[in-house]
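We treat protein structure as text, and this decision shapes the records that our systems exchange. We quote a single record here, exactly as it is kept in our systems:
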Amino acid sequence: MPTSSEFNLDEAIAFLGRTPATLDTQLRGLPDLWVRRNEGKETWSAFDILGHLVSGERHDWMPRARIILESGDSRAFDPFDRFAQLKESEKSFEQLLDEFASLRRNNLAELQALNIGPDDLARRGRHPSLGAVTLSELLATWVVHDLTHMHQLSRVMAHQYRDVVGPWNVYLGVLQCNGHSEP
């Protein structure tokens, strides 16, 4: 089996369309203990992670894809505030789940309506700190970004029982992982 693959837009859209339902099934209706607690100072809770995903739907993925398609690398992407969600906490967790699902559905519909072809995927944009990037790299990053935060979410939630699993903690890899613990 190959160790990596080429970017496939249809596969990416299929995955991205599942993230809201996955999070909704896992998180809707949980008590605040599960959605508001974090791993300690300067770490994110499930509420913060979901807020970050909502912010990305509004200000990151599709706005940057449009910049690539409309301006290429002649215009740098607008900077993305990775901490914007920490300033917006008036919504309930359920409202954030609903907003994420709606924004994602709309973004994927817009992405599909663009009828992106292989030449479009190779088009370049300009990230403010990374430099030249292609549309396919941006869209692949969107998928891996979801996976990164779903991994982070599992770790943050497992942390709530870190001290009560007793000696089994040596067998529970999620309790040993510290990847992406800094926001």
